[in-house]
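Extended Data, panel c. Modelled sequence:
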Amino acid sequence: MNQRTVYSNASEASVLQTNKVLRSTYMLLAMTLAFSAAVAGFSMMLNLPHPGFLLTIVGFYGLLFLVHKTANSGAGVLSVFAFTGFLGYTLGPILNMVIGAGGGEMVTTALGGTALIFFALSAYVLTTKKDMSFLNGMLFAGFWVILIGMVANIFLNIPALSLGMSALFILFSSGVILLQTSNIIKGGERNYILATVTLYVSIYNIFLSLLHLLMAFGGSDD
């Protein structure tokens, strides 16, 4: 009887911890998305220049490293806002370029499409509570395919390859959202800061990839 009580208490504690991580993740994700959008708007208003490919990569991975180093401390939340704020800044010049070329509707469509994809995928996992761990292998393989494709496209600069990479980014990021949400509700992810960053990057990549595809097929591809 005592063993059953202990087991029951442990199960309840696990469920409470999972719900706490889930709530904290979505709360921080909402705040970082709003902050990122505000920084992007500020960047657009001041017409700030894009930092360029090299600085963007250095800033992205440097701040991502900082997030992982501080994820278990009080500074972790500040690191997340620094990371998402930087990515918001990089969006500003891109959005100015697209809107300046008459692609305002494309930005709105990309935003709506990104929101629809995220909420649909999250709702599916939260409703079915399906274990998505089987995606690990496919996402690992997909990561290397994307990496090789990105490097190849730097040298080859083939439009069709660039569009293919955008489509792969959407599929890959969608898989990451499914897996990360599953990890949270199954108790495999206990750190809401790392979970937030993973979901944010996936949303960011889906939005940019959708925007790229819309620009290409809408006749406004750069």
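The radius of gyration is 19 Å. This feature is highlighted in the accompanying rendering.
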